[in-house]
Write a structure and sequence with these properties.
This protein is of the alpha+beta class. It has five domains: 56 residues; 109 residues, Immunoglobulins (Immunoglobulin-like); 92 residues, Immunoglobulins (Immunoglobulin-like), CATH 2.60.40; 96 residues, Immunoglobulins (Immunoglobulin-like, Sandwich), CATH 2.60.40; 53 residues, no CATH class. Helices cover 26% and strands 43% of the residues. The protein contains six helices and 24 strands. The strands form six sheets. A five-stranded mixed β-sheet has the order 2-8-7-4-5, with no helix packed on it. A five-stranded mixed β-sheet has the order 10-16-15-12-13, with no helix packed on it. It has a five-stranded mixed β-sheet with strand order 18-24-23-20-21, with no helix packed on it.
């Protein structure tokens, strides 16, 4: 359309020049006619295509919001546990208002982000922060970005050095400025003023640590507070304090990873350290007898059956032998293995006899406890005597009697009896070893007397 206007305008000018050359005799009238015609034609062309041409070529449409970063400031270098403070200046160079994100990364890790809204041409400072952790000590490439622009800086996070911290504090106290060279004023100083911890415990116990941290610096801030055991970090947390305020930090520390002995526990900040000693006793089991179930009365010859409930109240597995004692003499035993805070049941027995009757004193002996109990053993009544045992003894005597009789017959020292002639070999009822020996003795005496008489 613009090109068409140009062509028309050139055509009008050329026509005017041609007309002026042909009507030289009346220049006023000809110029007037040409002037009117050119003006009307240009005006008509401009009026006819104005609105439509703007919509078609888009030259008058506003530019969308575009956020660019014009400045970045940070408080580098810092020490582990201190806060990285980043201030970025963001400008909206577009022709429309908009909202966009602003972030910063350390290496590949996103550490902070926020959202900002800007009018066309507006500029604003955006603040971001991150509390450095114990593993962050390094020289980092920090990137501050928006959807439309990025800016890069180098950030240094140093390991904590007590001497260097002291020097830094002395230097900064002269002018009241903090670390870094980017104009951050004021400095937060977090001092650990106390640490409470149990002085002694057993390996595996949970020890409660409680520390008080106070900001004694010239400005508020956020820093890392961490607990250590023998120099190794066991917990860390970010604490934010206004100037002159304090906060209590706690942690429940499980000592299972430590051995028995003396250990150093500490609470640390980038600015101070507070330590305490902890003495750990070795882990051990504690096997206790917490129940006894047995028969209170038994007859002699019967079994005393006892059931014992055991509980390990220690923090180590109990591997031991549970023993049943009668008058301090071992009668039965069983090996057990009981885990910490676990329970089990053991069955032990003892067979009584007629030699020990009445109230018998028993005891059960576990690893760490010994419990006593009594059982009454009663004597058996005559009706309870086992008759079959006496019959067996009589039969054994009869069998023994038969042996000498048979031997005597074989040697020809006795006259066969009528029963023998009839083929009967039954022994004489009631004739046992003692009568036989008496008869032999009498026969021997008779023989000796007879020889003397001869």
């Amino acid at each position: 359309m613009v090109r068409l206007r140009t062509y028309l305008l050139a055509l009008v000018i050329a026509a005017a020049a041609f007309t002026g050359a042909t009507v030289a005799d009346s220049p006023s009238q000809g110029d007037s006619v040409v002037a009117v015609d050119a003006t009307d034609l240009v005006a008509s062309t401009a009026d006819g295509g104005g609105e439509n041409s703007t919509e078609e070529n888009g030259t008058d449409d506003p530019l969308p919001a575009e956020f660019v970063i014009t400045d970045v400031e940070t408080n580098t270098p810092i020490t582990v546990g201190e806060t990285i403070e980043v201030t970025a200046t963001v400008d909206n160079i577009g022709e429309e208002a908009g909202t966009g994100n602003v972030w910063f990364d350390l290496g590949e890790y996103r550490k902070g982000d926020t959202s900002v809204s800007l009018e066309p041409g507006e500029s604003r400072s955006v603040s971001l922060s991150y509390v450095s952790k114990s593993g962050d000590a390094d020289d980092w490439s920090m990137t501050v970005g928006t959807p439309d622009d990025t800016a890069t800086r180098t950030v240094t996070i140093d390991e904590r050095d007590d001497e260097r911290d002291d020097e830094t504090e002395d230097t900064s106290s002269d002018d009241g400025s903090g670390s870094g060279s980017s104009g951050f004023t004021g400095s937060a100083s977090f001092d650990a003023t106390s640490l409470n911890v149990t002085q002694s415990a057993t390996v595996g116990d949970v020890v409660h640590l409680q520390a008080t941290v106070e900001n004694t610096g010239t400005a508020g801030g956020e820093k890392l507070v961490w607990f250590t055991a023998d120099g190794s970090t066991v917990n860390e947390t970010a604490v934010e304090l206004d100037r002159g305020t304090q906060q209590t930090v706690t942690y429940a520390y499980n000592t299972s990873e430590l051995e028995n002995g003396t250990h150093e526990l500490a609470v640390e900040t980038p600015d101070s350290t507070e330590t305490r000693e902890l003495v750990l006793e070795p882990r051990r089991s504690n096997l206790l007898v917490d129940s006894i179930d047995t028969n209170s009365t038994v007859d002699a010859g019967e079994h005393v059956e006892a059931s014992f409930g055991l509980h390990n109240a220690g923090n180590a597995t109990a591997n031991t032998t549970v023993t049943l004692l009668l008058n301090d003499l071992r009668t039965d035993a069983e090996a057990v293995s009981v885990a910490p805070n676990a329970s089990t049941t053991v069955q032990l027995t003892y067979r009584t006899n007629t030699d020990l009757t009445g109230d018998l004193d028993f005891a059960v002996d576990a690893e760490d406890s010994r419990e006593s109990f009594s059982v009454n053993v009663t004597e058996p009544t005559p009706e309870q005597i086992e008759v079959p045992e006496l019959t067996e003894m009589s039969e054994q005597n009869n069998e023994t009697t038969d042996v000498p009789n048979s031997t005597a017959d074989d040697a020809g020292t006795s006259t066969p009896r009528e029963d023998d002639a009839a083929g009967t070999t039954d022994a004489v009822p009631g004739f046992g070893v003692v009568p036989m020996l008496a008869a032999l003795l009498l026969a021997l005496v008779a023989v000796i007397a007879r020889r003397r008489g001869d």
